[in-house]
From TrEMBL:
Coiled coil regions in record: none
Residue spans of biased composition, Basic and acidic residues class: 566-579
Annotated protein name in UniProt: B30.2/SPRY domain-containing protein
Top-rank lineage group of the source organism: Eukaryota
Length: 753
């Protein structure tokens, strides 16, 4: 990526971009160079999320750049100027690179003295908005003393509009002029968001600042709906940008501040439902709110202060093989390790505060008690969440739609925490329900059409194939009739499709299963229960050759697959004689529900999330640990060479000492970065989340196995997640955390014996 300035005379192509022509000037933070036909070293390395300021002084003929508000110095001087010369911002991008520009339509994050943005700020509107906001502050801060009839100061956080018609009329006049301004991006970010953040400046839970809720009430009361909606949309977009591009500082206070305001806004029911319906998943990539970015520059993140002492394990020999017998650590090494672990604990406590705020956001979105004025938040979230999964499952190559894997990992862990909270809360008030430790996905979700799996492969092949071949089993075992409109007569095209399905299924090396074929799985998954899966599916194949069995005397339920947009709360939770998602319960399943049906579908979505990209990202981040091991071996080898080097060979000693310094500095950097990764991705709590998913998958597979031939409807990704989560627990989380410490491990592992 090269970013800078160019004139209209510049002509770019695939080989030549900004900085490659005489009248174009660019800075490349990836290669840390500046470009104007020729190239030289300049600036600092940039990373994703950094903000680059491009400055041009046409009076002095100087171009310079800033990185996150810090000047990198003059890059070019004496640039071409004169009559007919005009410079424009320009950028050259490589494949998969992206950037967001701000020419002044929003407040600059790092305004520079003596420089103006290309787009001037709306000065007149800013003055007007600040004055009106000042009037509103005065109304909130002043009250009438009923005893003396005088205006007195009062705490704005305790302000309430009760029996004060004069105050209401005054506020209505203020909003009459203030409302149109709040539809403008610049004013929302520079005026309204700052005002709301100031309210939350003091410490304390968000509940102790009811003023924000009251202001939102006033907005919905005194502004037109379209004005409030546009204002809320711009406000959430500003909050997301502010959170995403906030620099990582030791106490993470900036991230906490923006998350607290997000919580305060989402606590307002009407605002929350509007944002869920129209903004959080449709306009914004709201998953960003659940991401904690990893700092690539340790010194700027303050990790040197949090973790002053670095340490790394010496588990590998010079040949790169893991030593079976680790040498007993010396007293100095023990002190370093303990100091490093204390630093990691300090970091963990700060990150846990941010994670708790993120979970609070999800708890608000999963609220199913707010039925006032329409559908509860949870069911809006559920349909949007399913759509989110569909986009990521069907757009594996479309980068503009895909959620980045690093975001997905954080989202998964926060969602698991919120899900288990509501699951156990339901258990507390329903004795017959199950605890989240016993969670699984009932098998009827896979065949009753209430949950859309977006044409994902099933264990028995394509869904269309299974509906035709197992429709009698659905009728006899689950009292389900497939809607005739979804069943097509078997034509030559159908037969060709089935043959293609069988061929492609046979070619899948992992978790692949064809009707009448054997399921390839590792030994840990070959329990006595699961070993019957092949027999059940073979039975299904035999049933195709036998005459159709007559339907039973029980009443059959005709079903058809519902799209996400078509579903209602009743379709999910059910009603008096409608079991909702649990329609078509096989006789092997208990009568009493495990939990609320909506939580079952969220659990199903969490498992799909892990399969889409989370496991891949967990494996990717192990690379930092591998880098630590490589540099540790290189440092150890260098120190051994230095100890053997003759004292009279000063030249060799000097080179070895330089290498030793480079390796030590790199290890100090990587060990602190690894501490961040271990806390955010490979902590004990995160390991327990993955272990819980493994248990959910094994329980789900066992229950699906009991349904006989209907086991074929289970999506393939359940087996994939079971195997991959086990692999992650075994290979990715050690040596920081050990599988041996997992609760209930013995019972789960015995299923694999």
């Amino acid at each position: 990526m090269q970013i800078g300035w160019c004139t209209l005379n510049c002509r770019f192509n695939q080989e030549e971009g900004v900085g490659d022509t005489p009248d174009s000037y660019a800075y490349d933070g990836n290669r840390v160079r500046k470009w104007n036909v020729t190239t030289t070293n300049y600036g600092k390395s940039w990373a994703a999320g950094d903000i680059v300021s491009c400055l041009i002084d046409l009076d002095e003929g100087i171009i310079s750049f800033c990185l996150n508000g810090v000047s990198l110095g003059t890059a070019f001087d004496n640039i071409t100027r004169g009559s007919g010369m005009a410079y424009f911002p320009a950028i050259s991008l490589s494949f998969k690179e992206s950037v967001a520009f701000n020419f002044g339509s929003r407040p600059l994050r790092y305004p520079m003295e003596d420089y103006r943005p290309l787009q001037d700020a709306p000065t007149t509107d800013l003055v007007k908005a600040h004055k009106l906001l000042g009037y509103l502050k005065n109304v909130l801060h002043l009250g009438l003393d009923p005893a003396e009839g005088k205006l007195v100061e009062r705490e704005s956080s305790t302000w309430q509009l009760r029996g004060e018609p004069t105050v209401l009329i005054t506020i209505a006049h203020i909003f009459n002029h203030f409302a149109p301004l709040m539809c403008k991006v610049y004013l929302v970010e520079d005026v309204l968001m700052k005002f709301l953040l100031d309210i939350l400046e003091k410490d304390g839970p968000v509940e102790s600042f009811p003023l924000i809720q009251q202001l939102l009430d006033l907005m919905w009361l005194l502004m037109e709906d379209y004005e409030v909606q546009e204002c809320l949309k711009q406000l959430m977009m500003s909050l997301l940008r502010a959170y995403r591009f906030s620099p990582i500082i030791p106490d993470l206070s900036l991230q906490m501040h923006y998350l607290r305001l997000t919580i305060a806004i989402l606590k307002h029911e009407k605002s929350r439902k509007f944002l869920l319906n129209n903004v959080l998943f449709d306009v914004l990539r709201s998953v960003v709110f659940f991401y904690i970015k990893s700092p690539l520059r340790v010194e700027e993140a303050g990790l040197q202060e949090l973790i002053p002492t670095t340490w790394w394990p010496n588990r590998f020999s010079k040949e790169g093989k893991e030593m079976k017998e680790v040498k007993e650590e010396s007293s100095d090494e023990r002190l370093r390790r303990r100091a490093y672990e204390r630093g990691c604990q300090r970091l963990k406590k700060r990150i846990e505060v941010v994670e708790d705020l993120q979970v609070q956001i999800l708890k608000l979105l999963l609220n199913n008690k707010d039925h006032n004025g329409g559908e509860a938040s949870r069911y809006i979230f559920l349909n949007k969440f399913r759509k989110f999964l569909q986009e990521n499952a069907s757009s594996r190559g479309n980068l503009t739609v895909l959620c980045p894997p690093e975001y997905m990992v954080c989202f998964l862990h926060r969602l698991i925490t919120a899900l288990r909270y509501y699951w156990d809360e339901y258990k507390a008030s329903n004795a017959t329900a199950a605890y989240s430790e016993e969670a699984y996905v009932p098998p009827q979700l896979f065949y009753n059409g209430k949950v859309d799996y977006f044409d994902l492969q099933r264990l028995g092949g394509l869904l269309s194939h299974l509906k035709k071949t197992l429709k009698d089993d659905l009728a006899s075992k689950a009292n389900i009739l497939i809607d005739p409109s979804e069943l097509q007569a078997i034509t030559m095209d159908d037969l060709d499709e089935d043959e293609e399905s069988a061929t492609s299924t046979a070619q899948r090396p992992v978790a692949a299963l064809a009707i009448g074929g054997a399921l390839a799985r590792p030994s840990w998954l070959s329990s006595p229960t699961l070993s019957r899966a092949n027999r059940f599916l073979s039975t299904a194949a035999v049933s195709l050759m036998n005459p159709r069995r007559p339907l039973g005397t029980m009443e059959k339920v005709k079903i058809r697959t519902l799209n996400v947009e078509q579903r209602t709360e009743e379709d999910i939770e059910g009603s008096h004689e409608n079991e909702g998602l649990l329609l078509g319960r096989p006789p092997e399943e208990p009568d009493q529900p495990l939990t609320e049906n909506s939580l079952l579908e969220i659990l199903d979505g969490v498992i799909m999330m892990y399969n889409l990209s989370v496991h891949q990202q967990l494996g990717k981040m192990v690379g930092v640990s591998d880098d630590v091991n490589e540099y540790a071996m290189a440092l150890k080898d260098t120190e051994e060479k230095l100890s053997r080097c003759p004292k009279w060979r000063k030249d060799i000693q000097e080179e070895l000492m330089k290498s030793q310094k480079v390796f030590s500095e790199k290890l100090n950097h990587l060990s602190r970065r690894l501490a961040w990764i271990n806390v955010t991705i490979y902590s004990k709590e995160k390991m327990q989340d993955i272990y819980w998913l493994l248990r959910v998958c094994t329980h789900t597979i066992e229950h699906g196995d009991r349904t006989g031939s209907l086991f074929a409807f289970m999506p393939e990704f359940y087996l994939s997640v079971a195997m991959n989560s086990y692999s992650a627990l075994k290979n990715y989380f050690s040596p920081v955390n050990s599988m041996e410490e997992l609760p209930g491990k013995v019972q789960v592992w015995r299923r694999g014996e």
